[in-house]
Amino acid sequence: MRFDVVTLFPEMFAGVASLGVVGRAATAGEVVVRFRSPREFGHGRHQTVDDTPYGGGAGMVMRVDCVVACLEALDADAPVGPAGAIRGHRILLTPRGTPFGQKRALELAAFPAITLICGRYEGIDERIAGFIDEEVSLGDFVLSGGEVAAMAVIDAVARLLPGVLGNPDSLASESHSSENGGLLEYPHYTRPVEFRGLRVPEVLAGGNHAAIDAWRRGQSLDRTVTSRPDIAPRAK
Ligand code: SAM
Asked: Mutation test of ligand 1: which of 5, 92, 94, 148 has the most ligand atoms closer than 8 Å to its C-beta?
């Protein structure tokens, strides 16, 4: 799968694109991450990409022409598949978008390519709406730029791709997974068996797999109801 990112700060992605699960997937060729900066298409000696808002007010607005030129340049360079050049499904990161979640991450993992558009300043000129496929928000708060949100989408989607996680079984029991009924995951323990008087639950060391499965299921239900009563009704 390919991730194309429109960003003024590609350096911010150095960690997420080269380390951990996404880094390994990139090395193995399962994931390709490309970056392009609207600055390349900026105006004047300083390659300016922002301007003052029509109507006045605080802050600067990202120019739509620079962002669209950047999107078109990414598409013009896109690798060609059997059905022609694979254009990325365009996602604008914005606090007014649809809140991102595991369900959408799973759906996005089925796309051959997605393009993540990171705003800065007060955001991108509203006319960008005619050049995107969807708007996604990381949550009800305001970030300084779309980059952190784009990294979250890349990480959450890439780990769902076939072959990316060492043990795909771990996906099935994870929090918010549909295979787990949308519950939060059960608690994990490892050595030492006792730490400052805190012992690993006896059932986990007993080797009775049916009992372990039942205990874990009960823990998942309990912690979902306790920690996330808002998602408990839709969990099964
Ligand atoms: N003026 C905008 C508003 O009040 O809605 C906020 C602009 S914010 C400072 C700059 C950029 O950060 C946005 O264009 C968007 O790309 C990104 N951003 C901020 N919060 C976000 C969120 N919750 N989810 C996704 N992207 C976000």
From this structure: 94
